[in-house]
Specification:
mainly beta; 1 helix; about 0% helix
Length: about 450
Amino acid sequence: MRTTRGPFALASALTFVFAAVVASACDSGDDEQPMPNPADTGDAGVSEAGVTDAGTRDTSTDAPEELVDASAELITCTVTPCAVEIAAGAESVCVRLNDGVVSCWGSNAAGALGRGADASSQSSAPAPVDGLGDATQISGSASVPGDTYCALRAGGAAVCWGSNTNGVLGRVDHEGEVITESSPVPAPVAGIGAASAVAAGYFVSCALLAGNDVACWGSNDAAQLPSSPHRPGIPLPATTFALDSAPKQLGVADRGTVALTDTGLVSWGLQGDLLGPNTGVLGREVSTETATPAKIELAHVAAIAASKGRVCAIANGRVYCWGAGQTAGSDSVYPAYVGVGGPIAHAQTVAVGPRSACATLSDGSAWCWGDNSRGQLGVGNAELQPVPVRVQKLAGRPVRMAVMEATTCAILSSGAVQCWGQNDKGQLGTGAADALPYLDPQNVVLTP
């Protein structure tokens, strides 16, 4: 079988046995370590993603696999305020607190921080989004000229704010025409009713509705809206379509969308996206674009995450990625194992940003891969890392992560938040902004 290596990492370069991870898991101050290769343990779980000589997916295994519990860990909220969810754009980040308040910091371009029209252009101090005190879920996207965020309110109403390029906020005027101006405060998404999840994007945003229904809005220049007409350059309001089985999660990667359903992964939209014709965000054999949601051959998927031109998924405790490569990997049309997660310490959450990605593991460690030019991988330096590396010096057990252009953040099991990397727009949330890269995690100062 020929193996196709995925974005961000070259799995064949991983040479340490997985037992080394367990031996070092209790010490967050260990020297930086590359991610060990679970293949060295003789594991018979999900095979590394590859392509057969006939050009079809090969996801066979030599023996029945033992399924792992890949559910995310609970946050204990031993600190106040307590962050329970985190989402990021390119230069800003938001957390949802356990009381439903959403607090954001970083760049406020296009109103991404949700503080109203008179707010400053950036903020290093986290502060609540105006009028949003009952959020149940949040999602962020790196956009232009600023970032885009969406949230669900109690009862299922979807609201979005920030950059509105391509009409991704889902706003319409009294005549039903799409509004393309940015919004510095949360605005209702028109025409979708109650939702169970929402995903913000640059070309399109989507929400999960009742049953098998999905609603998407924004650009439809590359089959992003399966039930709408092809209208390049003309943003469209929300349109609803049904998948073959009930969707549970969504990931939007520019012009391509991936959904995790009761029966597996499906995708639709543009294959190549902005970063080249071979970046393969759909995770399957598609020449250019398709408006028909169809299956991605990857079994036992528990979670997905997406950003510009790239998607990652946790499949039976391992992280697979596809789409555009990073400085530590190559492009991959199909899901490819990146060397993170395995039978001893399995992946529980994954986060994808414009240039890097991270995952939390069941042994209490966090691993990142991709660009490290501003120290955003958290290994104490800003040097290129050819394989996934363990984040160092965290103040606790990381359980959720978010990845910006050059900054990374983690929620710890206590509900506290730490960030590291670039801080020129106040992305670290410490109350100060400067041009220095911060190579070690810094404490975010959340206020009630």
